[in-house]
DNA sequence: GTCTATACATTGATAGAC
DNA sequence: GTCTATCAATGTATAGAC
């Protein structure tokens, strides 16, 4: 079973390049050279660069949501939070890449409108999940949330996204351990 | 007194475009059209695009540091923190732009090495200042910091940078009010 | 499906007139 | 200082052979 189809390879490399260089920081030529094909072959699968971007973002969103939903709903809030933060930490330590959504959000004005909508969906889904867990933590008494859990969830997700960028900037995986303190210091 | 020299205009528009579209999301032609000159005139001031980027980052860094240092050192830690967070909030509400350093950090792999060094300097300077203020807060008893203030400072700055990106993504200035809660909830 | 060939616009950059 | 003119390289994209 070979999952290394051309289409798969294109998407893998394209996702990585967006995360490393931004949407405007790579070309079909870069992709073609990396894979060892011609640019016209990429156009066969993704006629326009926006088609490629759309496919990447959809796949990323679906996989990330699946990973979140794989966190056992029966767990306590603080364990869920640790698992969630660990997802970010491991994603970074394995790839040294920031979040795809954060990479695209930086170049926002240069992206098509439908991508912006998808990014909002990605951010919103994460914030919703986090808010739900924080609320559970308050109910369970394991988390001390002074204000609105919705706002706390926003701040927490922003801190996670920002920490990934900083960890890469300093090429310092150790910084990803700060994430735990950042997210869980209110316990 | 006319500060709207060509050089100034170039730098202003270029900084804005980096913050909106990323370093690879605009061209000398874009700049020339915006200002009403020819691309060769831009090359007169900034022979290479990297020269332009360097000048912008240096100016941004200097101005931001000056703004931080303008915060009265005699103030209490929590007032200093509020002033610092308010700098971010107002910067966003006036311009709807994210931090220049955060915009560049996203496209990191496509930037020259000396720019990476400057970004590290910018992040480090902010984290240092924050850590110092947090330590003051602990001494004064106005802040309850469970762990290392250095780590807390990193998380706080990451949260600020991330919140700016989210506020822009959702075109929601209200989110910048979350910053206060995010940064000061440990009071 | 992948290629060759090609089109056509854009990009960063330079030389030299004014 | 700003312009015209020009450049080679790169960018996205298409047509059609195999």
TrEMBL record, chains A, B:
Keywords for this protein: DNA-binding, Transcription, Transcription regulation
InterPro entries, A to Z: Homeodomain-like_sf, HTH_TetR, Tet_transcr_reg_TetR-rel_C_sf, TetR_C
Annotated region of DNA binding: 27-46
Residue span, HTH tetR-type domain: 4-64
An example Gene Ontology molecular-function term: DNA binding
Pfam families linked: TetR_C_13, TetR_N
Superkingdom as given in the UniProt entry: Bacteria
Name of the protein in question: TetR/AcrR family transcriptional regulator
């Amino acid at each position: 079973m070979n999952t290394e189809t051309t289409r798969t390879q294109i998407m893998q490399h394209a996702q990585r390049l967006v995360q490393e260089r931004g949407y405007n920081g790579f070309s079909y030529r870069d992709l073609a050279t990396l894979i060892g094909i011609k640019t016209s072959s990429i156009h066969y699968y993704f006629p326009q660069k926006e088609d490629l971007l759309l496919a990447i973002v959809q796949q990323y969103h679906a996989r990330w949501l699946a990973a979140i939903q794989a966190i056992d709903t029966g767990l306590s809030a603080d364990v869920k939070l640790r698992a969630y933060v660990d997802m970010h930490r491991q994603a970074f330590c394995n790839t040294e890449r920031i979040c795809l959504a954060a990479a695209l959000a930086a170049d926002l004005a240069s992206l098509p409108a439908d991508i912006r909508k998808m990014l909002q969906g990605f951010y919103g889904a994460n914030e919703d999940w986090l808010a739900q867990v924080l609320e559970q933590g308050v109910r369970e008494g394991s988390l001390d949330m002074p204000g609105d859990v919705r706002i706390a969830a926003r701040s927490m997700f922003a801190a996670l996204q920002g920490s990934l960028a900083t960890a890469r900037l300093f090429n310092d995986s150790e910084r990803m351990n700060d994430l735990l303190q950042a997210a869980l210091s209110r316990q």
